[in-house]
Amino acid sequence: MLNFSDRLFDTIKKKNSVLVAGIDTSIENIPDYFIKKYYDKDKNETENLKYILFEYNRRIIDAIEENIVGVKFQAAFFEQYSYHGVEVLHKLILYAKNKKLIVIFDGKRNDISSSAKGYSNAYIGETVVFDKKIKFFDCDAITVNPYIGEDGIKPFVEDCERYKKGLFVLVKTSNPSSKDFQDLSIDSKYLFEKVAEKVHEWGAGCKGKYGYSDIGAVVGATQPDAAKLVRSILPDSFLLIPGVGVQGGKVEDLKYFLDKNKLGIIVNSSRDIIYAYKNHIHSDFEKSSFIASKNLKESINNAIA
Ligand SMILES: O=c1ccn([C@@H]2O[C@H](COP(=O)(O)O)[C@@H](O)[C@H]2O)c(=O)[nH]1
């Protein structure tokens, strides 16, 4: 099996797209006509929830797959429905993997090393179950929070090497409050620069045949100035960039995130794609999402050409 960064690189080239669709779906944002059509009064709430949540997202994935390199599943939107949502998440991960899309689990997980290893086992590695080892979620990559320090990151990095998976470490996030801690100054550097230096160190041992590291960084689209600094520290890492559109990040600023080969980025968009029907692009939600993802893919490609 190829390294994560090689699989990502090849899929970007094959699809001619760096767009990742964020699957952040809440039931209350699914169109009424869809719910009315599929809500079955003879079933209980959770059976209806599971069916409708899976079906809506499955159809979105089918509609947009040609425009995207992968999908990013935001854990919160599944966990809010307890184990019912997690069951749907598991089914959707399998569905997306079967379509050869790059699957990123956005859980921003971490803990002390023993607990971090549990998260890593679940999402990118394998878990010992009696005399078997089971790859439960088997995603291509996971987002992690670096605040706990190196011993919490190491189990993930080791599993990236072992299972050919990827990691995206939060370096400079897209939200306005990212400045509260990430911009604190230490030794005349921002804290996020220090984190980026660590990401460089952690990724040095896992590079693919194209020279990219399997350990990448999350940098918000709303942070082009920070992106220039991060890119100078991380010349060989993929940057996962959320925050275009609704959060104010501009496609024209994506050039500041690129590496020297005008590559090395993937750009997430969630609400603008999964709820594109709200913008009345088309009366049909699948067509709306298709058009929104196609337009965004093309405008990103133009901006980074
Ligand atoms: O810095 C970060 C890190 C993660 N996110 C996540 O990305 C999507 C963004 O959704 P949009 O609807 O496209 O705004 C969401 O899942 C966030 O949890 C981020 O926004 N910023």
TrEMBL record:
Pfam families for this protein: OMPdecase
Q: Which chemical reaction does it catalyze?
A: orotidine 5'-phosphate + H(+) = UMP + CO2
Q: Which Enzyme Commission numbers does its entry carry?
A: 4.1.1.23
Active-site residues are K108 (proton donor)
EC class: lyase
Pathway recorded for this protein: Pyrimidine metabolism; UMP biosynthesis via de novo pathway; UMP from orotate: step 2/2
The superkingdom listed in its UniProt entry is: Bacteria
Q: Which residues form the Orotidine 5'-phosphate decarboxylase domain?
A: 18-281
Q: Annotated Gene Ontology MF terms?
A: orotidine-5'-phosphate decarboxylase activity
User: Which controlled-vocabulary keywords does the entry list?
Assistant: Decarboxylase, Lyase, Pyrimidine biosynthesis
Q: Which NCBIfam families match?
A: pyrF_sub2
Q: Which family does it belong to?
A: Belongs to the OMP decarboxylase family. Type 2 subfamily.
- Listed PANTHER family: OROTIDINE 5'-PHOSPHATE DECARBOXYLASE
Q: Per its record, how is this protein called by name?
A: Orotidine 5'-phosphate decarboxylase
Q: Which organism is it from?
A: Caldicellulosiruptor morganii
Q: Which gene encodes it?
A: pyrF
